[in-house]
Fold:
Amino acid sequence: MTLTVEVPPDVEAGLLAQAQAQGLDMPSYVENVLRREAMAQPVAEVFRPAEELTAEERLVHLRKFIESHAGNTVVLTDEEMDRESIYEDRGL
Structure:
């Protein structure tokens, strides 16, 4: 199969650097990456219902979720968290 993918310049530079570091041309390196990813997990495991996961697997998924939101924290001042500030327009 032939596949054409547009990637941003920074991603292209990273791929090229990795390919050169391994002594490969870009198409060979990208093929290796795709093969590795395609064989990483059986598809059935990727789509397992949560009820079928072990506690350890659920913990891994939770940690990945938490890491994916790193840097998205909004810090509010004490005044912004004050009850009066939150409900001031309701007269409560």
Summary: Helices lie at 9-21, 26-38, 43-46, 55-68, 78-81, 83-87. The radius of gyration is 23 Å.
